[in-house]
Amino acid sequence: MRPLPLVQELRHRHRTPGVAAVCHTGVTMLTPLCGRPQESHMSDRVLPSNPPDGDPDAARPSARTDLPGYLADFETRMNRLQERAEDSQALLAAVTGTGASAGGEVTVTVGAGGALTDIEFTSEVRRTSPDSLADMVKEAYGKAVAEAATGATEAMATLLGAGSPAMEDFASSLRARGEGGA
């Protein structure tokens, strides 16, 4: 796997003094240091981070004392995040939702984001007024979107972990858009 552009740039820069350290809040900073660590609120301490997987209390290499180790760890974590993003895209691409009107005259299928992928009408719609047909389509669409949101929530829970903060954010964004979510 090729190193990420940022990692390549940092590897080039690490030949100059003071590229990165961990600030007093525990956030890893990838900026030049100014003066002594206390002047820039930086330290040599290696504070735990919350990796996407693995032990959240595991110490990470310090950019100040072990820049090559820090860059290797950073690259590994970025590659894991990239893989997880690809996994989530694949999971969501497979999610669909199908809904039907109360009488079954209209059936709608949508993707995870609510995009219409299919719509079917029975011959019964020929005897239906345009306004009634529009209501049936909206009803079927609403059911399909709700089913897709449930499927997307279940798919993401397997990746993010049910009850995780990231999962709560995902479900909250679905609710905010009016798509349901667990």
UniProtKB/TrEMBL annotation:
<protein>
    <submittedName>
        <fullName>YbaB/EbfC family nucleoid-associated protein</fullName>
    </submittedName>
</protein>
<feature type="region of interest" description="Disordered">
    <location>
        <begin position="34"/>
        <end position="65"/>
    </location>
</feature>
<dbReference type="InterPro" id="IPR036894">
    <property type="entry name" value="YbaB-like_sf"/>
</dbReference>
<dbReference type="GO" id="GO:0003677">
    <property type="term" value="F:DNA binding"/>
</dbReference>
<dbReference type="Pfam" id="PF02575">
    <property type="entry name" value="YbaB_DNA_bd"/>
</dbReference>
<dbReference type="InterPro" id="IPR004401">
    <property type="entry name" value="YbaB/EbfC"/>
</dbReference>
